[in-house]
Here is the input.
Amino acid sequence: MRVTYQRELVAAKLLTELGVEHFVPTTRTAIKNDKGRTIGHKVDPLIHNYIFIYSSFNELYVLKQGKMEYLRFIMAKDTETGLFEPQFVPDKQMSDFIRITKSRGMKMLSPDIDLRKGDKVRVLKGVEGVYVKMPNGREKRVVVKIEGVSAVATTTLKLEDVEKL
Here is the structure.
């Protein structure tokens, strides 16, 4: 769902209090003083104005009408009917997205892995994505995408974590 005015973390706190399963991908940034020393960290949403909620349409509608009127459905055009309908993310795609956004510090060890741009691959023991070469031409990553919302690229990968499909 879309959250207006960058209230993702406020919405996440309220959903936690209500016992509603949700996910807000975040990033942790160091706060530095004038001398460049780290004095703390802050947590910011990785994708501004979005929160992923695991719930039914009816439950989401009740939330929107009640305490969380700032929630908005993300609409997508249905290919069969041509009508705009609320967008839902399949469970497998969402779990892959969560696993990639929560992973850190992977590194590609071997440049001779037999992969070509656009190959479908499986990484992290089950996450599926598309192998891509980054615009700088040197880095190779796997992208896990949620259609119409976001795509997240792995930082780098270990050879043993990549399986060509």
Remarks:
- The radius of gyration is 19 Å.
- The chain is about 20% helix and 35% strand.
